[in-house]
Amino acid sequence: MLLITGAVATGDQYLEVTASPDRKVSLAIPPTITQGGGEKREVALDVADALRFDMELTGRYAILDTSAAAGRGIRPGEFDFDPWRAAGAELLIKSAYTLSGDQVILECRLYDVAGGRQLLAKRFSGTVRDVRRMAHTFSDEILLLTTGERGPFTGKVAFVSKRSGNKEIYLMDYDGHHVQRITANRSINLNPDFSPSGREIIYTSYKKGNPDLYRRDLFSTAESRISAHPGLNITGSWSPDGGTIALSLSRDGNAEIYLIGKDGRQMTRLPRTNAINTSPSWSPDGSRIAFLSDRLGKPQIFIMNSDGSNPTRLTTSGAYNVSPAWSPKGDRILYCRQQPGGFQIHSIAPDGSDDLQ
Questions:
Q1: For residues 44 and 32, is the Cβ–Cβ distance under 8 A?
Q2: What average pLDDT score do residues 251-260 get?
Q3: What is the pLDDT of residue 12?
Q4: Does pTM top 0.85 for this prediction?
Q5: What is the overall mean pLDDT for the chain?
Q6: Burial (CB count within 10 angstroms: exposed 0-12, middle 13-18, buried 19+), residue 284
Q7: Looking at residues 123-150, what average pLDDT do you find?
Q8: Who contacts 215 (Cβ-Cβ below 8 Å, separation ≥6)?
Q9: Angle at CA 67, nearest 5°, toward 65 and 68?
Q10: In this structure, what are the phi and psi dihedrals at residue 89, rounded to the nearest 5 degrees?
Q11: Is residue 1 within 8 Å of 20, Cβ to Cβ?
Q12: Are 4 and 15 in contact (CB under 8 A)?
């Protein structure tokens, strides 16, 4: 049984969609239709594909085969709910577009099938290239409506690829679409990290010979070198408030974690050890930093306060654990563990419990 009720969270109104804990909510996403103007098959395919991808990724929904119930009309009163009830749908996403040249208007609506009522309606406009982002935005709104938390579906991923023959920085949508090359210096570029606003990235580049840290505006493409100490300037990580960058420097021998201002000034070294310390990752509230250290002989994940105090070992299993990354909620830390056959992604609670592959 699906229960849809009003609820309040963090001061904002949202809709609580609850199913039995042992099953997923049945969701129908019929093909996107045209409402007039021109017709472009890839627009309809992109919208439906993006919506299905997003909803499946949540793990909350079972996507139905809609061939038996698909029909025209997306607005209240334009279609009959009975075929959708017969198909077993509990929620229904209807979408339609209007095309004029390269310009698209996309309309998306979410329905409670059993109650025969509309839950959410949004209208978007942009170019043909923007339609996947429009669909992702609607998915974000669905998650906000049903959980009180906005989804990650309009997010970007920064990554390193050798597809051009050199290690360059690229961006892509979270689902792998719209790949965009950011650097083109024919050198080695590593460790991209977004600013909290998403407008800038920092990354390490060997383009001047030494592995230095750079800061780049993704909109204006303006760039500056903010850390160029002899040796390593690597694994930069932006603080949640955007004012500080944690990174690893080897200027005094072993790689140690330092804090610098976003302009490269006001450098502070966190407590020094005789080990290698690198790969800092801030907690969402900025109070703690997860990092990699070999102070016990093998690479393991540790946590410390953001001033360097109280370093505590987090991982106790596995001989080679690297690349910590704090979750946006702050309740989990991801890391990579070397195992026979390659690296595997693990998730662990910040207190060291519940270590899951």
A1: yes
A2: 93
A3: 45
A4: yes
A5: 91
A6: middle
A7: 95
A8: 200, 201, 202, 223, 224, 226, 262
A9: 100
A10: -75, 140
A11: yes
A12: yes
∠ CA(231), CA(235), CA(236), 5° rounding?
A: 100
Q: Quick one: CA dihedral 158, 162, 164, 165, positive or negative? A: positive
Given a contact cutoff of 8 angstroms between Cβ atoms, the answer to whether 203 and 218 are in contact is: no
Determine the Cα–Cα distance for residues 16 and 275; give it in Å rounded to an integer: 49
Q: Give all strands (DSSP E) within 64-188, no chain letters.
A: 91-100, 103-112, 117-127, 156-161, 168-173, 180-181
CA 174 to chain centre: 6
327: its two tokens: 């979750």
Whole-angstrom Cα distance, residue 134 to residue 97?
Answer: 11
Beginning with the edge strand found earlier in the chain, give each strand of the sheet holding 168-173 in spatial order: 156-161, 168-173, 180-181
CA dist 207 → 190, 194, 212 (Å): 11, 20, 8
63: which strand partners?
27
Residue 147: pLDDT band with limits 50, 70, 90: confident
Place of tokens 């580049």: 205
> Over 50: is that where the pLDDT of 1 sits?
no
Please check whether residue 147 is in contact with residue 14, taking contact to mean a CB–CB distance below 8 angstroms. Answer: yes
Contact 236, 246 (CB under 8 A): yes
Grouping H, G, I as helix, E, B as strand and the rest as coil, residue 39 is coil
Domains of the chain: 3-147 (3.40.50.10070), 156-348 (2.120.10.30)
User: Closest Cα partner for 141 from 78, 74, 63, 54?
Assistant: 54
DSSP annotation string for 305-344: ETTS-S-EE---S-S-EEEEEE-TTSS-EEEEEEETTEEE
Q: Would you tell me how many other CB atoms lie within 10 Å of the CB of residue 289?
A: 26
Distance CA 286, CA 67 (A): 49
With b for 16 or more beta-carbon neighbours within 10 A and e for fewer, the 321-332 pattern comes to: bbbbebeeeeeb
